[in-house]
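User: Structure tokens for both sequences below?

Assistant:
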Amino acid sequence: MARPYSAQVAAAGAEGDQSLYNMDRDQVEEMILAAINEHCGDSLEAPSQSAMCRVMQKFGMKLNLDTVTMKRLFGVVKHHSYIAMQPTPMLQSDRFLDRNEVQHKLKRSQIDSREDFAEDVAEALHSPEELARVRGQPPPAPSRAQKKRCKALYRIMDKNSDGDLSADEIAASFPQEWLDLHLDSMLMAQRSDSEGVDIETWVEFTRELVRSYGSAFVNNFLSHMLTNHLGALSEEQNYAGMFAFGAMDGDMSGTLDSDEIHEVFDSCFPEYLSNRPHSLVRVEKGCIDAYMWLLFLREVQHFEGEQALTDLLKNVESHAFTYDDTKEEVYKEFTGPLYSAAIAHFVKASA
């Protein structure tokens, strides 16, 4: 069981701020979340920007963080803040509304997501520049992308959706070479009870893999498992998927960022992102390349069925995209057989 926030801070503060930089990034993230919950409560309501500034100020004072670091943390607060319009009881009263004949609302700056905020704070504290400046040496830890992929994989492996991975599900999922390395035994040994493996244990297992075998091994592990557990797309679906990727990539960067994804999904498939917070499309804050996009389409097919995937691709195809002049010009020139041949070649190469 995780220690209370006050105990975590006391342990870190006993050695000064250096211990914060020698912690696992996930441990830092857990401390930050605990600090937020202690100050703002466990309510689902989004904390205000001012409340989050107070949390960071208190956090920094207890851990003796310097001015340079605190500026970084307040920058994260600003990045995650947005303006919400909220009516107050006084302004909603019948007497007030009758007199003014209009409903007034107050502006309130609040934080978009506690979890994303905590991730970004931990990332800022463990950025290469910050670690070099304070000479911190944290142990290896899964990257944000690896953590998100491992959570997505967990839900795919959990075939009966009971929230636990059984020994049989694990043995059936791991290839023989990983069974020979006793990775299944390593995972089962981390269970807190004799039942199955919950998602917290699965994330801890990924952390242990990074420490024991390195980040490259974990990338291969996750890619191999995801590929093997998701049904393949047909040649026609691959083709349509790559056309959709090209259409959604408005800035022609070769990846889809959050804005490009939400422009389409908010209008044609909003329930998928809201119902599946650990979906592959959310990897690295929604910034995914063509390989991960095709894996995501396989995920949609896995959870929602082939018809849902067909509908999604049709909606993307018919979406009214707005491009800048450069992409408009490229699309005018790069169409027809030449464009189709290029896409087909890419799909064949990535299959």
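Moving on to the next sequence.
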Amino acid sequence: MAPSRNTVAVLLLLLPLVIGALIAFATFIQRRRQQRLWQEEQKKRKEKANEEIDTDPTSPVKVATKEELKELLEKEAWAPKLDLKDWSEASEFPGCPWNFECCQGLDEVLEKIWKQPLPTELQSGYKALAARIKSVRVARVKATLPTATHFVIVYTLMTGAELFGGAPIEHAVGLTLDNEEETTMSNKPDDGLRRRRGAARSVGSKGPAHVDPDQMVPDMLLPAMLPFYRIHDGFGVLLSTGHLPLLLSSPTEGMSGSCFYVYPSRGLELEVARGRPLVRFARVDKTCSACAEHGVPRPVVVYLEKTGEQTEDDECPLDFIGDTISNVAGQRVVPPSYMGGPSSSS
């Protein structure tokens, strides 16, 4: 049966479309093949050029090593600059908050840093630290985003482990020690803390420390921490001194095992947990923080889990700090009450 006249007419109309589609497909395949060949050729040329650079000692182009890349990174304007000096050279840092010019050894250096007399709650931590220190260095971190200069004491222990403490804050006012006879501004040039506007030094007995409510610093979330902040604005452990810039810029963050265990004043965090205003002031472990209630003259430690569970202890924040420093210095102390240890009242 011969095709009808209409069928022939339709085939004649479709034939140019089919031929055009075949030509377009063939052109596409050819272009893809040429593109693939060009890419392969470029890859070979690049590999050959790299081989010539690596083997030609006179080539002006070199592949940077890790050390060279690190050096280039440190030269970037935005990158924080870290400098370390032994305590005997600390005066070479302009604006260094510690003055060790009259010190003859580590004992005198520690006395300058840990301004004597110490509150009772901090004495155990200081003794545990002092007994295990091998060397003391001063670190300066200069950041540009935002612009800031941080000074830190780096303690190297006999074991090789390293601890660090921030510079004392300048507004430790209203701080008194029980039975204290007087609180004066020191004018002696060999003071452990270089004389600054608003910096005070307490003298008197070694009784427990507290803060006069009438003289509390308005922006201080937890004034009970001031007796420690007059020594170190934050305290922690270091697995590498290179971690300091990150820790100082983000105090509540850790890096490869380095972290603040006692947060600096700028790292204190206020949150409402189950209707209770709590200030996170220290790290216990990954899942637990040490807190204290905001607005209470003599707060106690409240352990706050990530789950929201709270466990209140009888010890004050300074007791917790003293035990924490003893622990990180290598002198094991009894666990807190929330981990099965005795409470302060027992």
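User: Anything stand out in the second?

Assistant: Confidence is low (pLDDT under 50) at residues 171-208, 210-218.
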